[in-house]
Protein backbone atom coordinates (compact mmCIF):
# COMPACT_ATOMS: atom_id res chain seq x y z
CA UNK A 1 0.00 0.00 0.00
CA UNK A 2 1.05 3.56 -0.59
CA UNK A 3 1.39 5.02 2.92
CA UNK A 4 0.67 8.53 1.63
CA UNK A 5 -2.91 7.59 0.80
CA UNK A 6 -3.32 4.75 3.30
CA UNK A 7 -2.65 7.18 6.15
CA UNK A 8 -4.84 10.04 4.94
CA UNK A 9 -7.89 10.82 7.06
CA UNK A 10 -11.31 10.99 5.37
CA UNK A 11 -11.79 14.44 3.84
CA UNK A 12 -13.42 16.92 6.22
CA UNK A 13 -16.34 17.44 3.80
CA UNK A 14 -17.37 13.79 3.82
CA UNK A 15 -16.68 13.50 7.55
CA UNK A 16 -18.95 16.43 8.41
CA UNK A 17 -21.69 15.44 5.93
CA UNK A 18 -21.66 11.95 7.47
CA UNK A 19 -22.00 13.54 10.91
CA UNK A 20 -25.00 15.52 9.64
CA UNK A 21 -26.61 12.33 8.32
CA UNK A 22 -25.91 10.52 11.60
CA UNK A 23 -27.16 13.28 13.93
CA UNK A 24 -29.90 14.72 11.70
CA UNK A 25 -28.20 18.11 12.04
CA UNK A 26 -28.73 20.87 9.45
CA UNK A 27 -25.79 20.59 7.05
CA UNK A 28 -24.10 23.97 6.54
CA UNK A 29 -20.77 22.16 6.13
CA UNK A 30 -19.98 20.77 2.67
CA UNK A 31 -20.65 23.42 0.01
CA UNK A 32 -23.65 22.53 -2.10
CA UNK A 33 -26.83 24.50 -2.86
CA UNK A 34 -30.08 22.85 -1.80
CA UNK A 35 -32.20 24.83 -4.30
CA UNK A 36 -31.94 27.20 -7.24
CA UNK A 37 -30.83 24.72 -9.85
CA UNK A 38 -31.36 26.05 -13.39
CA UNK A 39 -34.25 24.00 -14.78
CA UNK A 40 -33.29 24.62 -18.42
CA UNK A 41 -29.76 23.29 -17.87
CA UNK A 42 -31.18 20.17 -16.21
CA UNK A 43 -33.55 19.68 -19.13
CA UNK A 44 -30.72 20.12 -21.63
CA UNK A 45 -28.87 17.32 -19.82
CA UNK A 46 -31.92 15.05 -19.75
CA UNK A 47 -32.60 15.66 -23.45
CA UNK A 48 -29.01 14.89 -24.39
CA UNK A 49 -29.16 11.68 -22.34
CA UNK A 50 -32.22 10.36 -24.18
CA UNK A 51 -31.17 11.67 -27.57
CA UNK A 52 -28.04 9.58 -27.83
CA UNK A 53 -25.19 11.48 -26.19
CA UNK A 54 -23.99 8.42 -24.30
CA UNK A 55 -20.90 7.02 -25.99
CA UNK A 56 -17.28 8.08 -25.59
CA UNK A 57 -17.03 11.70 -26.65
CA UNK A 58 -13.75 13.12 -28.01
CA UNK A 59 -10.98 12.96 -25.43
CA UNK A 60 -10.51 16.75 -25.04
CA UNK A 61 -14.27 17.25 -24.61
CA UNK A 62 -17.13 17.80 -27.07
CA UNK A 63 -16.47 20.69 -29.48
CA UNK A 64 -19.70 22.49 -28.41
CA UNK A 65 -18.46 22.68 -24.82
CA UNK A 66 -14.92 23.73 -25.67
CA UNK A 67 -16.29 26.45 -27.94
CA UNK A 68 -18.77 27.52 -25.25
CA UNK A 69 -15.95 27.79 -22.67
CA UNK A 70 -13.86 29.93 -25.04
CA UNK A 71 -16.87 32.18 -25.86
CA UNK A 72 -17.81 32.43 -22.21
CA UNK A 73 -14.38 33.56 -21.03
CA UNK A 74 -14.07 36.00 -23.93
CA UNK A 75 -17.41 37.54 -22.97
CA UNK A 76 -17.05 37.54 -19.17
CA UNK A 77 -13.33 37.87 -18.49
CA UNK A 78 -11.79 39.19 -21.73
CA UNK A 79 -9.61 36.06 -21.91
CA UNK A 80 -8.96 34.80 -25.44
CA UNK A 81 -8.54 31.04 -25.78
CA UNK A 82 -8.27 28.82 -28.83
CA UNK A 83 -10.92 26.17 -28.20
CA UNK A 84 -9.08 23.48 -30.14
CA UNK A 85 -5.60 23.74 -28.68
CA UNK A 86 -6.08 25.41 -25.30
CA UNK A 87 -9.08 23.76 -23.59
CA UNK A 88 -9.56 20.25 -22.20
CA UNK A 89 -12.76 19.14 -20.47
CA UNK A 90 -12.24 17.09 -17.30
CA UNK A 91 -14.34 15.18 -14.77
CA UNK A 92 -14.73 18.07 -12.37
CA UNK A 93 -12.15 20.66 -11.40
CA UNK A 94 -10.73 17.89 -9.21
CA UNK A 95 -9.51 15.96 -12.24
CA UNK A 96 -8.12 19.15 -13.77
CA UNK A 97 -6.14 19.74 -10.56
CA UNK A 98 -4.85 16.17 -10.52
CA UNK A 99 -3.90 16.24 -14.21
CA UNK A 100 -2.17 19.60 -13.80
CA UNK A 101 -0.12 18.45 -10.82
CA UNK A 102 0.76 15.15 -12.52
CA UNK A 103 1.82 16.91 -15.69
CA UNK A 104 3.68 19.90 -14.23
CA UNK A 105 5.32 18.71 -11.00
CA UNK A 106 8.43 16.53 -11.09
CA UNK A 107 10.09 14.98 -8.03
CA UNK A 108 12.03 17.63 -6.10
CA UNK A 109 10.17 20.60 -7.61
CA UNK A 110 9.09 23.15 -5.05
CA UNK A 111 5.37 23.88 -5.14
CA UNK A 112 3.93 26.93 -3.40
CA UNK A 113 0.67 26.35 -1.58
CA UNK A 114 -1.28 29.12 0.07
CA UNK A 115 -2.94 28.16 3.37
CA UNK A 116 -5.80 27.88 4.02
CA UNK A 117 -5.95 25.59 0.99
CA UNK A 118 -8.47 23.17 -0.46
CA UNK A 119 -7.71 19.81 1.10
CA UNK A 120 -7.12 17.92 -2.16
CA UNK A 121 -4.02 19.95 -3.11
CA UNK A 122 -1.38 18.72 -0.72
CA UNK A 123 -1.76 14.93 -1.25
CA UNK A 124 -1.63 15.48 -5.03
CA UNK A 125 1.57 17.50 -4.74
CA UNK A 126 3.18 14.97 -2.40
CA UNK A 127 2.25 12.03 -4.64
CA UNK A 128 3.95 13.79 -7.55
CA UNK A 129 7.12 14.11 -5.44
CA UNK A 130 6.74 17.88 -5.15
CA UNK A 131 8.21 19.69 -2.15
CA UNK A 132 5.45 21.81 -0.61
CA UNK A 133 6.36 25.36 0.44
CA UNK A 134 3.57 26.80 2.51
CA UNK A 135 2.47 30.41 2.70
CA UNK A 136 0.13 31.15 5.59
CA UNK A 137 -2.71 33.65 5.42
CA UNK A 138 -4.25 34.95 8.61
CA UNK A 139 -7.67 36.25 9.58
CA UNK A 140 -9.39 38.58 9.39
CA UNK A 141 -7.79 39.96 6.19
CA UNK A 142 -6.18 36.78 4.76
CA UNK A 143 -3.81 38.93 2.63
CA UNK A 144 -0.83 37.78 0.55
CA UNK A 145 2.27 39.89 1.24
CA UNK A 146 5.46 40.53 -0.66
CA UNK A 147 7.47 39.40 2.37
CA UNK A 148 5.67 36.01 2.44
CA UNK A 149 6.24 35.50 -1.29
CA UNK A 150 9.89 36.52 -1.08
CA UNK A 151 10.42 33.96 1.68
CA UNK A 152 8.57 31.15 -0.10
CA UNK A 153 9.97 31.46 -3.65
CA UNK A 154 13.34 29.90 -4.43
CA UNK A 155 15.25 28.97 -7.60
CA UNK A 156 13.61 25.53 -7.30
CA UNK A 157 10.03 26.88 -7.34
CA UNK A 158 8.30 25.38 -10.37
CA UNK A 159 4.57 25.62 -9.60
CA UNK A 160 2.21 27.79 -7.55
CA UNK A 161 -1.21 26.46 -6.69
CA UNK A 162 -3.60 29.39 -6.44
CA UNK A 163 -7.27 29.38 -5.49
CA UNK A 164 -9.13 32.59 -6.29
CA UNK A 165 -11.78 33.37 -5.04
CA UNK A 166 -10.46 31.51 -2.03
CA UNK A 167 -12.29 28.67 -0.30
CA UNK A 168 -12.74 28.72 2.74
CA UNK A 169 -11.99 32.39 3.49
CA UNK A 170 -14.52 33.77 0.95
CA UNK A 171 -11.97 36.42 -0.04
CA UNK A 172 -10.70 37.47 -3.46
CA UNK A 173 -7.09 38.40 -4.11
CA UNK A 174 -6.76 42.05 -5.14
CA UNK A 175 -5.30 43.20 -8.46
CA UNK A 176 -2.22 44.24 -6.49
CA UNK A 177 -1.79 40.79 -4.94
CA UNK A 178 -2.26 39.05 -8.30
CA UNK A 179 0.24 41.40 -9.99
CA UNK A 180 2.74 40.77 -7.20
CA UNK A 181 2.36 37.00 -7.44
CA UNK A 182 2.62 37.17 -11.25
CA UNK A 183 5.84 39.14 -10.95
CA UNK A 184 7.39 36.48 -8.72
CA UNK A 185 6.18 33.67 -11.02
CA UNK A 186 7.68 35.31 -14.12
CA UNK A 187 10.94 36.12 -12.33
CA UNK A 188 11.29 32.49 -11.22
CA UNK A 189 10.15 31.00 -14.55
CA UNK A 190 7.39 29.08 -12.74
CA UNK A 191 3.75 28.31 -13.66
CA UNK A 192 0.47 28.82 -11.80
CA UNK A 193 -2.24 26.22 -11.50
CA UNK A 194 -5.15 28.57 -10.91
CA UNK A 195 -8.23 27.00 -9.36
CA UNK A 196 -10.99 29.47 -10.28
CA UNK A 197 -14.03 27.28 -9.61
CA UNK A 198 -15.67 30.14 -7.67
CA UNK A 199 -15.16 32.70 -10.47
CA UNK A 200 -18.90 33.36 -10.93
CA UNK A 201 -19.89 33.33 -7.28
CA UNK A 202 -18.72 36.84 -6.37
CA UNK A 203 -20.75 39.56 -4.73
CA UNK A 204 -21.45 43.27 -4.34
CA UNK A 205 -20.46 44.23 -7.89
CA UNK A 206 -17.05 42.58 -7.72
CA UNK A 207 -15.58 41.08 -10.91
CA UNK A 208 -13.37 38.02 -11.01
CA UNK A 209 -9.85 38.68 -12.24
CA UNK A 210 -8.09 35.70 -13.88
CA UNK A 211 -4.34 35.60 -13.15
CA UNK A 212 -3.87 34.49 -16.76
CA UNK A 213 -4.56 38.14 -17.72
CA UNK A 214 -1.63 39.48 -15.67
CA UNK A 215 1.49 40.54 -17.62
CA UNK A 216 3.61 37.56 -18.60
CA UNK A 217 1.07 35.01 -17.32
CA UNK A 218 -0.75 33.98 -20.52
CA UNK A 219 1.82 31.24 -21.21
CA UNK A 220 2.34 30.36 -17.54
CA UNK A 221 -1.16 29.67 -16.26
CA UNK A 222 -3.47 26.69 -16.13
CA UNK A 223 -6.93 28.18 -15.57
CA UNK A 224 -9.33 25.68 -14.01
CA UNK A 225 -13.14 25.98 -13.94
CA UNK A 226 -16.12 23.91 -12.83
CA UNK A 227 -19.55 23.67 -14.47
CA UNK A 228 -20.84 22.17 -11.24
CA UNK A 229 -20.03 25.37 -9.37
CA UNK A 230 -21.22 27.76 -12.07
CA UNK A 231 -24.66 26.11 -12.30
CA UNK A 232 -25.15 25.00 -8.68
CA UNK A 233 -24.96 21.36 -9.79
CA UNK A 234 -22.04 20.21 -7.68
CA UNK A 235 -22.57 16.49 -8.34
CA UNK A 236 -22.17 16.88 -12.08
CA UNK A 237 -18.39 16.95 -12.08
CA UNK A 238 -17.85 18.68 -15.40
CA UNK A 239 -14.69 20.78 -15.17
CA UNK A 240 -12.03 22.05 -17.53
CA UNK A 241 -8.47 23.30 -17.79
CA UNK A 242 -7.29 26.06 -20.09
CA UNK A 243 -3.64 26.68 -20.94
CA UNK A 244 -1.30 27.62 -23.76
CA UNK A 245 -0.56 24.71 -26.15
CA UNK A 246 2.93 24.15 -24.69
CA UNK A 247 1.39 23.31 -21.28
CA UNK A 248 -1.80 21.77 -22.65
CA UNK A 249 0.17 19.11 -24.48
CA UNK A 250 1.32 17.61 -21.16
CA UNK A 251 -1.98 18.26 -19.35
CA UNK A 252 -3.90 16.39 -22.04
CA UNK A 253 -1.58 13.38 -21.70
CA UNK A 254 -2.31 13.24 -17.97
CA UNK A 255 -6.06 13.56 -18.63
CA UNK A 256 -6.06 10.73 -21.18
CA UNK A 257 -5.04 8.18 -18.57
CA UNK A 258 -6.92 9.61 -15.60
CA UNK A 259 -10.49 9.56 -16.93
CA UNK A 260 -10.04 9.95 -20.72
CA UNK A 261 -13.44 11.63 -20.87
CA UNK A 262 -16.53 13.00 -19.08
CA UNK A 263 -20.24 12.10 -19.63
CA UNK A 264 -21.25 13.71 -22.94
CA UNK A 265 -24.84 14.50 -21.95
CA UNK A 266 -23.59 16.59 -19.02
CA UNK A 267 -21.05 18.30 -21.29
CA UNK A 268 -23.89 19.20 -23.68
CA UNK A 269 -25.93 20.73 -20.86
CA UNK A 270 -23.02 22.80 -19.51
CA UNK A 271 -22.28 24.02 -23.06
CA UNK A 272 -25.88 25.20 -23.26
CA UNK A 273 -25.67 26.83 -19.82
CA UNK A 274 -22.48 28.77 -20.51
CA UNK A 275 -24.31 30.50 -23.36
CA UNK A 276 -27.01 31.90 -21.06
CA UNK A 277 -27.25 35.68 -21.04
CA UNK A 278 -25.67 37.92 -18.44
CA UNK A 279 -28.98 38.25 -16.60
CA UNK A 280 -28.77 34.64 -15.41
CA UNK A 281 -25.35 35.12 -13.82
CA UNK A 282 -26.30 38.47 -12.28
CA UNK A 283 -29.46 36.98 -10.76
CA UNK A 284 -27.56 33.96 -9.43
CA UNK A 285 -25.04 36.19 -7.69
CA UNK A 286 -27.81 38.36 -6.26
CA UNK A 287 -29.62 35.29 -4.91
CA UNK A 288 -26.52 33.95 -3.20
CA UNK A 289 -25.70 37.41 -1.82
CA UNK A 290 -29.21 37.60 -0.33
CA UNK A 291 -28.68 34.24 1.37
CA UNK A 292 -25.28 35.38 2.61
CA UNK A 293 -26.84 38.51 4.11
CA UNK A 294 -29.65 36.52 5.71
CA UNK A 295 -27.21 34.20 7.45
CA UNK A 296 -24.76 37.00 8.36
CA UNK A 297 -27.36 39.33 9.83
CA UNK A 298 -28.97 36.49 11.79
CA UNK A 299 -25.61 35.38 13.20
CA UNK A 300 -24.59 38.97 13.99
CA UNK A 301 -27.90 39.56 15.79
CA UNK A 302 -27.28 36.48 17.93
CA UNK A 303 -23.85 37.81 18.94
CA UNK A 304 -21.67 35.79 16.56
CA UNK A 305 -18.76 37.70 15.01
CA UNK A 306 -18.83 37.00 11.26
CA UNK A 307 -16.06 37.72 8.76
CA UNK A 308 -16.85 39.38 5.41
CA UNK A 309 -17.70 37.16 2.42
CA UNK A 310 -16.77 38.55 -1.01
CA UNK A 311 -17.50 35.33 -2.91
CA UNK A 312 -18.05 31.50 -2.73
CA UNK A 313 -20.96 29.83 -0.89
CA UNK A 314 -19.30 30.49 2.45
CA UNK A 315 -19.27 32.76 5.46
CA UNK A 316 -17.04 32.39 8.52
CA UNK A 317 -17.47 32.99 12.21
CA UNK A 318 -14.55 34.05 14.40
CA UNK A 319 -14.98 31.99 17.56
CA UNK A 320 -12.56 33.91 19.77
CA UNK A 321 -14.12 37.24 18.79
CA UNK A 322 -17.54 35.70 19.51
CA UNK A 323 -16.44 34.87 23.06
CA UNK A 324 -16.12 31.10 22.50
CA UNK A 325 -13.06 29.54 24.11
CA UNK A 326 -13.20 26.23 22.20
CA UNK A 327 -11.02 25.49 19.16
CA UNK A 328 -12.79 25.10 15.81
CA UNK A 329 -12.77 21.28 15.74
CA UNK A 330 -14.20 20.93 19.26
CA UNK A 331 -16.73 23.65 18.54
CA UNK A 332 -17.93 22.02 15.28
CA UNK A 333 -18.20 18.68 17.04
CA UNK A 334 -20.21 20.20 19.88
CA UNK A 335 -22.38 22.21 17.49
CA UNK A 336 -23.22 19.11 15.47
CA UNK A 337 -24.06 17.01 18.49
CA UNK A 338 -25.85 19.60 20.64
CA UNK A 339 -26.82 22.42 18.34
CA UNK A 340 -27.90 20.28 15.42
CA UNK A 341 -25.94 22.35 12.89
CA UNK A 342 -22.91 21.10 10.94
CA UNK A 343 -20.12 23.50 9.92
CA UNK A 344 -16.50 23.09 8.76
CA UNK A 345 -13.48 23.84 11.00
CA UNK A 346 -11.10 26.05 8.98
CA UNK A 347 -8.03 24.37 10.56
CA UNK A 348 -8.77 21.46 8.16
CA UNK A 349 -7.42 23.70 5.37
CA UNK A 350 -3.97 24.03 6.96
CA UNK A 351 -1.11 21.52 6.80
CA UNK A 352 0.81 23.25 9.59
CA UNK A 353 0.34 26.10 12.07
CA UNK A 354 -3.44 26.05 11.64
CA UNK A 355 -5.76 28.95 12.40
CA UNK A 356 -8.04 27.28 14.96
CA UNK A 357 -10.62 29.92 15.78
CA UNK A 358 -12.56 30.20 12.52
CA UNK A 359 -15.54 28.10 11.42
CA UNK A 360 -17.01 28.04 7.88
CA UNK A 361 -20.76 27.94 7.17
CA UNK A 362 -22.40 27.33 3.76
CA UNK A 363 -25.24 29.78 3.06
CA UNK A 364 -26.28 28.31 -0.31
CA UNK A 365 -29.53 27.11 1.25
CA UNK A 366 -33.23 27.96 1.23
CA UNK A 367 -34.43 30.73 3.57
CA UNK A 368 -36.23 28.11 5.65
CA UNK A 369 -33.01 26.11 6.17
CA UNK A 370 -31.03 29.25 7.03
CA UNK A 371 -33.69 30.39 9.50
CA UNK A 372 -33.85 26.98 11.16
CA UNK A 373 -30.06 26.93 11.48
CA UNK A 374 -30.08 30.45 12.94
CA UNK A 375 -32.58 29.43 15.57
CA UNK A 376 -30.30 26.59 16.61
CA UNK A 377 -27.17 28.77 16.46
CA UNK A 378 -28.78 31.26 18.84
CA UNK A 379 -29.07 28.47 21.41
CA UNK A 380 -25.48 27.30 20.83
CA UNK A 381 -23.92 30.39 22.41
N1 LIG B 1 -11.48 23.50 -5.90
C1 LIG B 1 -12.13 24.18 -4.94
C2 LIG B 1 -11.49 25.37 -4.32
C3 LIG B 1 -13.39 23.75 -4.53
O1 LIG B 1 -14.03 24.43 -3.59
C4 LIG B 1 -13.96 22.61 -5.14
C5 LIG B 1 -15.28 22.04 -4.72
N2 LIG B 1 -16.10 22.84 -4.14
C6 LIG B 1 -13.26 21.95 -6.14
C7 LIG B 1 -12.01 22.42 -6.49
C8 LIG B 1 -13.80 20.74 -6.82
O2 LIG B 1 -14.61 21.04 -7.90
P1 LIG B 1 -15.34 19.88 -8.73
O3 LIG B 1 -16.51 19.46 -7.93
O4 LIG B 1 -15.70 20.51 -10.03
O5 LIG B 1 -14.36 18.76 -8.88
N1 LIG C 1 -15.77 22.17 -2.36
C1 LIG C 1 -16.75 21.74 -1.42
C2 LIG C 1 -16.58 22.55 -0.14
O1 LIG C 1 -15.64 23.27 0.01
C3 LIG C 1 -16.65 20.30 -1.09
C4 LIG C 1 -16.28 19.38 -2.18
C5 LIG C 1 -16.10 18.00 -1.63
O2 LIG C 1 -16.84 17.56 -0.80
N2 LIG C 1 -15.09 17.34 -2.07
O3 LIG C 1 -17.40 22.41 0.70
From TrEMBL:
Catalysed reactions, as listed in the record: L-aspartate + 2-oxoglutarate = oxaloacetate + L-glutamate
EC number: 2.6.1.1
One function term, GO molecular function aspect: pyridoxal phosphate binding
Alphabetical UniProt keywords: Aminotransferase, Pyridoxal phosphate, Transferase
Residues making up the signal peptide according to the UniProt record: none
Entry annotated with the keyword Transferase: yes
Ranges for domain Aminotransferase class I/classII large: 25-376
Cross-referenced CDD domains: AAT_like (cd00609)
A GO CC term assigned to this protein in UniProt: cytoplasm
Cofactor(s) required for function per UniProt: pyridoxal 5'-phosphate
UniProt subunit comment: Homodimer.
Annotated family: Belongs to the class-I pyridoxal-phosphate-dependent aminotransferase family.
Protein name: aspartate transaminase
Lineage: Bacteria, Pseudomonadati, Pseudomonadota, Alphaproteobacteria, Sphingomonadales
Amino acid sequence: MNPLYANLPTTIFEKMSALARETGAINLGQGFPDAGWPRDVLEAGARALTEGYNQYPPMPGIPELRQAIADHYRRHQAVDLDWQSEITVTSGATEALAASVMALVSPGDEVLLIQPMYDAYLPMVRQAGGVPKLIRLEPPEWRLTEAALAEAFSPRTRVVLLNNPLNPTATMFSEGELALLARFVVEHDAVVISDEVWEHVVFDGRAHSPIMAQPGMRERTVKIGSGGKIFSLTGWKVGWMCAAPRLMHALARAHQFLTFTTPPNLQTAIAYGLGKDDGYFTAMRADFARSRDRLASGLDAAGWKTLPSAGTYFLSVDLAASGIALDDVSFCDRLAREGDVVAIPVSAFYAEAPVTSVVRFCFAKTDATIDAALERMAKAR
